[in-house]
Structures are given as structure tokens and as C-alpha cells.
Specification:
Belongs to the class-II fumarase/aspartase family. Aspartase subfamily. The chain is mainly alpha-helical and 368 residues long. 74% of the residues lie in helices and 1% in strands. It has a two-stranded antiparallel ribbon with strand order 1-2.
């Protein structure tokens, strides 16, 4: 077995132990970041071992059935995506779940690397290869905590999982493209959230104005009294940049010949920027916008009272034709359903209050 293959197999074998020991120095920092104790943080390690145990039972039969390449690419991709999810974790529960998934992907390299040795070597050669692979298994628990501690002091606990993401992704370009696509999907969702909040907070009088945005930057040169949706706009610009980075990564990954691709620095740079932008953007958007959101209950009550949809609640009691006449009158005169119904004399106030109850119309099985 040549040195290149041996190094690749060694890197694949290192997935499991590296992900176990690399983040151990960050336990106190994680406990502080998630406002909990180290004992609860250790659940993320237990979740990883659980995923590792389950995954190793699956990859052997799957690799024998479908070949080595496909399960390996799937496992490395899962490990890459889960490592990025760990870096973006907003809570301990998220981190625990991501660690479990990370282990399911990481054990693919551990299992399939041994299967490849069996495929390529005779018994004596396999014994030599396994002894060399065991060096990796022995060195990783020694070096990983030291490297993890240095990263922790330098860039914080998120950098540990960013490095794990890159370690897995550099095994090939496909995981990088898949990871970038997942980040783009997240950016699309964030863009939608930002635009929806900006629309629902538009006003103060001409728009929906159903949501009160935090007054971080109140006032406007052209609209006094307006609360500018700057956090929504910042998040949407950030999401746009991540989408652009994905296009760059997709094009860069398509270049080169065989495994020679000089665009890899461009891929890594844009991927790191996307991860950083999404992590910082989500954190700041939550702190400066989401945490301060308030519904404008009075505004929503006014809109609901003037809405015409509620007339359907009257259909079972006075019939469709009379209900439609009430709605048309309310629309034509710019008044409420209540006022139009009382003017037409089809029901009294007590009946309207009893029959037109919006909260009941939201219940399953309500007819009206």
C-alpha cells in the first residue's frame, strides 16, 4: 500500500477520535455559553458515543452492498454538515443532537478505511497497514486536546467545530459543495424570516404594523415615528452574501482535473465566510430584534374586527345570501360586519357576539 492511500485512510480513521477529544477542553466554556454546568455539557459526549455505536453497525453491511465510495461520501458529508451545525449551535440541546448526527457520519471513515485495507492487502500487508493506522488512533487522543485548547483560547469554542468541518470537507470537494448548499438553504430561510418581519412591522399607519420592532434605530428623515427595520435589512444582506458565496463555491468546485483543483482556497475562504456570517448574523438578529419583538394586539384586533372573512360564521344561522349581503354592505360603506348586520336587522348584538367568535373559528372541526 502506497503512502498516499495510507495517509488518506489514516485521516478517515481519525474522524472518530479527533471529534471526541478535540473539544474536551471547551467543556467549561460551553457550560458558560449555554448557562448550564459541565455535567450537562457531557451529554454531548454521551450522544456522540451513542451515534458512534449505532453507525458502526450500519456502515459495514452498507459498504459491502453498495461499494466503498458512496457510503463514505455520504458519511463524510453528514459529518461535515453536523460539524457546521455544532459550530452554529444556539443551545445545548442543539449541540447534543448535532453531535449525535456527527458521530453517525464520522464512523463511516473508521469502518470503511478498514474495509479498504482488507480489499487492497493480503493478510501480511493488512497487518502492517492496521499497525500504522493504529498510530493515528493513538496520536489523535494525545494531540487533539492540545490543539483544541489552543483553538479555544484563540477563537472560541465555535472554531473547534469549524476546524472539524474543514477537516472532513477537505477529504473531497463534494462535502464542501453539500455544506455550502445547506448554508445557502439556511440563508434562504433567514431571508424569508427577515422579509416577513419587515413586512409585518411596516408602518406606523400605512403598513401592516402588526408587529412592534425593537426601537434600536427609531426615526427617519422622511417618516417621523417610524422604527427602521435595520436588523431585518442587515440579515437579508447577509443572507444574500451567503447565497453568492454558494455560487462561487459551486463554480470553483467544478474546476480542475481529477483531484487537482487550484480553486480550493477560494472554496475554503467563501465557506468560512458563510459560516462566520450566519453565526454572527443569527446571534445579533436574535439579540437585537427577535428578543424585543412584540405583537401589536390592538392593531390586530382592529384589523380582525374590520375583516370580512368572519361573516362565514353567520352562514349556518342566517343563510349564505343574507351573510353575503352583510359583507357587501360592510365593504361598500367601509364599516364593520357588526354595524352592517345591525343596520340590516338580520340579528341583534347578542346574537352577533354569540355567533361571530374568531377564536372558535380556529378550532378543528368548526363549521361556519
Amino acid at each position: 500500500m502506497n503512502l498516499r492511500i495510507l495517509l488518506i485512510l489514516g485521516a478517515l480513521s481519525a474522524f472518530g477520535p479527533l471529534a471526541i477529544d478535540f473539544y474536551l477542553p471547551s467543556f467549561p466554556t460551553l457550560a458558560k455559553a449555554f448557562a448550564t454546568d459541565v455535567e450537562h455539557v457531557q451529554l454531548s459526549l454521551a450522544a456522540y458515543f451513542a451515534g458512534l455505536s449505532i453507525g458502526q453497525l450500519l456502515y459495514g453491511p452498507v459498504a459491502d452492498r453498495y461499494g466503498r465510495r458512496l457510503p463514505l461520501l455520504v458519511g463524510v458529508s453528514i459529518f461535515t454538515l453536523a460539524s457546521a451545525a455544532c459550530a452554529l449551535a444556539p443551545s445545548l440541546e442543539w449541540l447534543i443532537a448535532a453531535r449525535f448526527v456527527q458521530a453517525l457520519g464520522g464512523c463511516a471513515g473508521m469502518v470503511i478505511s478498514r474495509a479498504v485495507v482488507r480489499d487492497l492487502c493480503d493478510p501480511i500487508g493488512a497487518a502492517k497497514a492496521f499497525s500504522q493506522l493504529m498510530l493515528v488512533m493513538g496520536l489523535a487522543p494525545i494531540l487533539a486536546p492540545v490543539a483544541g485548547g489552543l483553538l479555544l483560547d484563540w477563537q472560541g469554542w465555535q472554531s473547534i467545530f469549524v476546524c472539524l468541518t474543514l477537516f472532513a470537507a477537505l477529504a473531497g470537494h463534494e462535502p464542501l459543495v453539500i455544506l455550502s448548499g445547506a448554508l445557502k438553504s439556511l440563508a434562504v430561510a433567514l431571508m424569508k424570516i427577515a422579509n416577513d418581519l419587515r413586512l409585518l412591522g411596516s408602518g406606523p399607519r400605512a403598513g401592516f404594523a402588526e408587529v412592534k420592532l425593537p426601537a434600536n434605530e427609531p426615526g427617519s428623515s422622511i417618516m417621523p415615528g417610524k422604527v427602521n427595520p435595520t436588523q431585518c435589512e442587515a440579515l437579508s444582506m447577509l443572507a444574500c452574501q451567503v447565497m453568492g458565496n454558494d455560487s462561487t463555491i459551486s463554480f470553483a468546485a467544478s474546476q480542475g482535473h481529477l483531484q487537482l483543483n487550484v480553486f480550493k482556497p477560494v472554496i475554503v475562504y467563501n465557506l468560512l465566510e458563510s459560516i462566520r456570517l450566519l453565526a454572527d448574523g443569527c446571534r445579533n438578529f436574535n439579540k437585537h430584534c427577535v428578543a424585543g419583538l412584540e405583537p401589536d394586539a390592538q392593531r390586530m384586533a382592529d384589523l380582525l374586527e374590520r375583516g370580512l372573512m368572519l361573516v362565514t360564521a353567520l352562514n349556518p344561522h342566517i343563510g349564505y345570501d343574507k351573510a353575503a349581503e352583510i359583507a357587501k354592505k360592510a365593504y361598500a360603506e367601509g364599516t364593520t360586519l357588526r354595524a352592517a348586520a345591525l343596520q340590516l336587522g338580520y340579528l341583534d348584538e347578542a346574537q352577533f357576539d354569540e355567533w361571530v367568535r374568531p377564536e372558535q373559528m380556529l378550532e378543528a372541526g368548526h363549521h361556519g
